[in-house]
Design goal:
The chain has 7 helices and 5 strands; from the N terminus they run ααααββααββαβ. The strands form 2 sheets. It has a 3-stranded antiparallel beta sheet, with no helix packed on it. Strand 1 and strand 2 form a beta hairpin. The radius of gyration is 17 Å and the shape is globular. Pfam families: HxlR. Keywords: DNA-binding, Transcription, Transcription regulation. This is Helix-turn-helix domain-containing protein. InterPro entries: HTH_HxlR, WH-like_DNA-bd_sf, WH_DNA-bd_sf.
Length: about 180
């Protein structure tokens, strides 16, 4: 029996948030949107998510005001984070760092985020998505993401979809991927 999406008997902000972002695939869709993935076909290829599931997750995020649809060509739309969606960055970052520490294994994850627009010279983000150099919580658009050495784990397969290939190079968050 499928689980419902709501927590009617919970008077709790976390429960209300989970009604929107708590389903499987949703946080990965949001991660890719922060990385600059905007088009349905690119999201689907990078996430390996069934078409119907992705359609449902995108519709939920649009209905909740987290993403908006924008035309980019006649009859074609892309998905862009709204201000409400951008506010999810610290939570997404913190959850990702938790995964690095507790679920990835020795050495943690391979992706880092640097405050590229830092007035103090910038540094990789610390806990809570804070820049340790200037002490601020930088906006996602002022962050650059990069992979650590790709050669450090020759047994780890590299994906070859267009999004994965583009994200092997340093990339500013929210900047559309080619």
């Amino acid at each position: 029996m499928p689980l419902g999406r709501d927590y009617d008997r919970q008077d709790c902000a976390l429960a209300r948030a989970l009604e929107v972002v708590g389903e499987r695939w949703t946080m990965l869709v949001l991660r890719d949107c922060f990385f600059g993935v905007r088009r349905f076909a690119d999201l689907r290829a990078h996430l390996d998510v069934p078409r119907a599931v992705l359609s449902d997750r995108l519709a939920t995020l649009v209905d909740a005001g987290i993403l908006e649809r924008r035309p980019y060509a006649p009859g074609r739309e892309e998905y862009v984070l709204t201000g409400t969606g951008l506010d999810l960055w610290p939570a997404l970052y913190s959850l990702s760092r938790w995964g690095d520490r507790h679920r990835v294994g020795p050495g943690g994850g391979r992706r880092r985020f640097r405050h590229a627009d830092c007035p103090a010279g910038g540094a990789d983000l610390a806990a809570g998505a804070v820049c340790p150099a200037c002490g601020t919580l930088p906006a996602p658009a002022s962050l650059e993401t990069r992979l650590l050495d790709l050669d450090d784990d020759p047994d780890r397969p590299l994906r070859d979809d267009a999004v994965s290939v583009a994200l092997r190079r340093p990339h500013r968050l929210l900047t559309p991927l080619p």
